[in-house]
Write a structure and sequence with these properties.
It contains ten helices and ten strands. Helices cover 44% and strands 18% of the residues. Strand 4, helix 3 and strand 5 form a beta-alpha-beta unit.
Length: 335
């Protein structure tokens, strides 16, 4: 079964063709990073406009790279939540148009489910049940993956997502948007023990809070500037990265142990962070847990992961109709 997948939830316009869930025939991503960098973050109106401009060309390229035409496509899958509402509307309406024109099934995919599904493309042996830590610019969740389509959140951020905290802390350190990659690179030559950063507490045992940590970094930099003191940016980046990675790993491993999971996974854009990958890998090995992490190219937003998840939604009979809408927020257990 060949699925054409569309992803437009934030600032990447992406299309892919995925066969039988795990074989990626093509994957094309048009990024808007250079434009949003001018503003220090994603501007929703600009993102929506660029999706309108890019979506046809990206889809045509994905079909061409797969050696197919729309006549060869069996279904179309699209991210319909969560994300920037204007950006989502572009992808949803485009997918609905294709489904109607070609009289093929339309499949709605939750963005977080898509990130988790990136692991299925990378790891042929991975099957539910397992527990997954999803960490991206907009989401930080600990999720029980009970089946390919049934997921349950056991912990999440109560304020900023980890990726958002990376971007805001990076801005204070003088790095361009997106900040995660710059902090990751700088941390490689820094001393992670030089700066002691707070680890905000939460009411929920497996919830997270990154707002206070982000604010501590911003205040540290601003106070140093006011006093004319120099900040060791590389060491601050290393301290921040390790603190975030350790916070995430501690609660994720604890949740996995409590719920009896020896099979765990990492997903989302921040899954590309080298410190998080290293810290979590070491802890998983120490605890005797099997850890799955997507290849770097599948950590960020892409349509291949949407096509993969779309396949499993299709097998479960989760087919949408022309009333399909887009939603800025949506719980994982909702179809």
């Amino acid at each position: 079964m060949k699925i054409l997948a569309i992803e437009s939830s934030c600032d990447e316009t992406a299309a892919a063709v995925v066969e039988n869930g795990r074989t990626v025939l093509s994957s094309v991503v048009a990024t808007q990073i250079d434009e949003h960098k001018l503003y220090g973050g994603v501007v929703p109106e600009i993102a929506s406009r660029r999706h309108c401009e890019n979506i046809t060309g990206v889809t045509d390229e994905a079909l061409k790279n797969a050696g197919l035409t729309l006549d060869d496509i069996d279904a179309v899958a699209v991210t319909n939540a969560p994300g920037l509402i204007g950006a989502l509307f572009v992808g949803v309406n485009f997918a609905k148009g294709i489904a109607a024109a070609k009289n093929i099934p339309l499949i709605a995919v939750h963005h977080i489910k898509g990130h988790i599904a990136a692991n299925y493309i990378t790891h042929a042996d991975l099957e539910p049940p397992y527990m997954c830590l999803v960490v991206s610019g907009g989401h930080t969740h600990i999720v029980k993956v009970n089946s390919y389509t049934e997921l349950e959140t056991v912990g999440r951020t109560t304020d900023d997502a980890a990726g958002e905290a990376f971007d805001k802390a990076a801005r204070a350190m003088g790095f361009d948007y997106p900040g995660g990659i710059h902090i990751d690179n700088a941390s490689k030559t820094g001393d992670k023990t030089k700066y002691k950063l707070p680890r905000p507490a939460t009411k929920g045992e497996y919830d997270f809070s990154f707002s206070g940590l982000k604010t501590a970094v911003i205040n540290l930099v601003h106070n140093a500037k006011q006093k004319g003191e120099e900040v060791d940016i590389n060491s601050l980046a290393a301290s921040f990265s390790y603190t975030v990675a350790d916070m995430l790993t501690d609660k994720f491993i604890a949740a996995a142990k409590e719920y009896g999971y020896n099979k765990i996974a990492l997903a989302g854009g921040v899954a590309a962070n080298s410190v998080l990958r290293s810290v979590l890998s070491q802890r998983a090995e120490k605890e005797g847990m099997k850890l799955y992490i997507p290849t770097i190219s599948l950590c960020g937003d892409n349509a291949a992961m949407i096509g993969c998840q779309g396949y499993y939604e299709y097998l479960e009979g989760n087919i949408a109709d022309m009333s399909l809408n887009a939603y800025a927020t949506k719980k994982l257990h909702m179809l």
